[in-house]
Amino acid sequence: MRRRGSRCASALLTPREAANGVDSEENKKKKWARLEKYEDLPEYLKDNEFVRDHYRCEWPMRDVLRSVFSLHNETLNIWTHLVGFLIFAWLTVVSLTEETTIKNFTARLFWEDIGWFNTTTMNESSRSDALYSDSYARHFSNSPLLIASKDSSSIIPLWPWFVFLGGAMVCLIFSTTSHLFSCHSRRFYYFFWRLDYAGISLMIVGSFFAPIYYAFLDLPYWRFLYLSFITSIGILVVITLLAPSLSSGDYRGFRAALFLSMGFSGVIPAAHGVLLYWDHPQVIASLVYEIAMGIMYGLGAMFYVTRIPERWRPGAFDIVGHSHQIFHVFVLAAALTHCAATLIIMEWRKVLHHV
Ligand SMILES: [Zn+2]
C-alpha cells in the first residue's frame, strides 16, 4: 500500500475503481499512458526540479517497455547508453572472432593517426611482419584470448581487455534499464538506481584492469597491488551506495565525488607507468588519451552535478538537451577514449614483448 499523497496523478484511479464505473475504460487507458508534470510526481520520483514535464509515472510494465520508442524525458538517456552498449558489444564480438580486425582497428584508428609513432617505432609492414610473420604466430593469433607474437614467450593475454569491455557493457546496459524501468514503482526505483551505481563502479574497476595489466606486465607485485586496491575501493563504493537514501537527488554531488575519486586514483599507477617508460612514445600517447578521458569524465560530472543547462531555463530541456543526457554522452566518449588508450598500450606491449 502506498502512502497517501505519494501517487502520481495518472495513477489516481486503480483498475478496480475504473471497472466500478468511477472512470471509463477508455479514459483509464489514456491516463495510464499520460506523461506527468514534476509537481504531480510522488516524492521518490522527484529528482530534478529543473526538468519540469514529460515524466512517466508508475506506468504498467507493458507501457514502460513500449516507452523505449516514445518521446519522454528519459528517451535520450535510454538511447545514448543503449547505443553505447551496442558499440561495446560489437567491439567484443570483433575481438572474439577476428584478431586481425582488432589489429587493423588499432592501427587505423588510434595508431596511424599519430604519424610520428610510425617513424619512432617501426613501419606498418615490418610491425605486421613481426607480429604475424610465421605460421606459429598465426596459430596462436586465432585464439581470441591471446595476442600472439613471434614465439610463445611473447604471447600476451587478452583477458584484461575483455574485463574492460565486459565492465563497459554491464555499466551501459544497467544504465539503459535503470532509465527505462525506474519509473515503474518505488521498489523498481531503488533497485534499478543501485544497479546503475554498481554498473558504474564495475566499469571504473574494469577500466583499470587492461592498462595496469599491460603496463606492469613484468612487475607482478605492483600489478597485484594496484588491481587489488581499485577492486577493494570498487566493492566499498558499491556497498556504500546500497543505502537507499544515497539514491536521492540530495546526494548527487556525493555520488559524483565518489566515482570521480575512484577514477582519478588511476593517476598513481599512470604516473608510475610514465616514470618507468617515459621514453616510450606509445606510453605517452596512451597517457594523452587517458588525460582526455579524465577531462571528459570531469566535464560529464560537472554537468551531472550542476544540472546545466536546465537550471537556466527550467522546462526548456525536458526532452532534449538536459544535463543527464550530456553526462551520458561524455561517459560514452570517455569510455571510447579509454578504449583507444588501452589498444595503444596493448599494441606497445605486444611489440615490447617481442623484442
Ligand atoms: Zn544515467
Q: Can you offer a commentary on this structure?
A:
It is a single chain. The chain has about 350 residues and is mainly alpha-helical. It has a single domain (about 75-355), classed as Up-down Bundle (Rhopdopsin 7-helix transmembrane proteins). Helices cover about 65% and strands about 0% of the residues. It has 15 helices and two strands. It has helices at about 15-20, 25-30, 60-65, 75-95, 100-110, 115-120, 125-130, 135-140, 160-180, 185-215, 220-240, 250-265, 265-275, 280-305, 325-355; strands at about 145, 155. The protein has a two-stranded antiparallel sheet. A hairpin with an 8-residue loop joins β1 and β2. Zinc ion binds near residues 77, 179 and 328. Zinc ion binds near residues 77, 175, 179, 324 and 328. Its main location: membrane. Keywords: Membrane, Metal-binding, Transmembrane, Transmembrane helix, Zinc. It is found in: Membrane. This is Heptahelical transmembrane protein 2. It holds the Pfam family HlyIII.
